[in-house]
Design brief:
Layout (H helix, E strand, L loop, with lengths): L5 H14 L28 H31 L1 H8 E4 L2 E4 L2 E7 L8 E7 L5 E6 L2 H12 L7 H29 L3 H30 L2
Antiparallel strand pairs: 1-2, 2-3, 3-4, 4-5
Helix pairs in contact: 1-2, 2-3, 4-5, 4-6, 5-6
């Protein structure tokens, strides 16, 4: 890897000071410098040596950057998560991953939670899915689609089915919780508490299933 020399650092510092209007002392010359052409810059002026030194530094930094980028691209071939990260583009109301967008939407009247997700094809603007409750579902589906799966494939359908189950059980739990607050009969309270707990358990089971399916993508 290229190393920036003390002389190059001094040249960079001098140029930065000049651009910021700071007085800079003239660079000292070594004895070997007397055999070369000598410039006598005025205060705040840049010499050809400064420019040349800065050019060398920038060239080295550029080579280092290119080397890092090359390594990232090479590694992304064998690291799917890194490859996906290179494709992600942040949008105003969501993200774009490969050929697809995940957009965040809100509806204050939505019982299962005011925030939900939609998936769109960036090339055709077709809606792949709407009203998805979990971000994990949306991201897993987009991964599958970018890897060549179709929207009606078994893997994608399983994710949608589990997300629908999660949503349904969550709505049930919310309804049982509301009823529990209004009922006064002890027997009915026990029934609603039991149903509330069962709905929450099914809701969490569906979410866990979605995560397992997502990890398999």
């Amino acid at each position: 890897m290229s190393v920036v020399t003390p002389e190059e650092r001094e040249a960079m510092s001098r140029l930065r000071n000049i651009m910021e209007g700071i007085h800079t002392p003239e660079p000292t010359m070594s004895t070997s410098a007397y055999s070369q052409e000598v410039e006598l810059p005025g205060a705040g002026q840049t010499t050809r040596a400064d420019v040349s030194a800065m050019s060398d530094v920038l060239s080295k930094l550029n080579n280092i950057s290119n080397h890092v980028v090359d390594n990232i691209i090479t590694e992304s071939v064998t690291q799917p998560i890194l490859s996906e990260a290179l494709q992600i583009q942040k949008l105003q109301n969501g993200i774009k991953v490969g050929r697809y967008q995940i957009l965040v939407k809100e509806d204050s009247q939505r019982l299962a939670g005011k925030q939900f997700y939609s998936i769109y094809n960036s090339l055709t603007n077709d809606t792949i899915a709407d009203d998805i409750s979990l971000y994990e579902t949306a991201l897993a589906v987009v991964r599958l689609l970018n890897n060549g799966k179709f929207a009606n494939s078994v893997e994608v359908r399983q994710l949608f089915e589990q997300d629908n189950a999660y949503t349904s059980h969550k709505v049930d739990a919310i309804n049982f919780k509301r009823r529990l607050k209004t009922v006064r009969d002890a027997t009915k309270q026990d029934i609603y508490e039991s149903r509330l707990q069962a709905s929450m358990d099914r809701c969490m089971a569906a979410k866990k299933h979605i995560k397992n399916l997502a990890n398999a993508t």
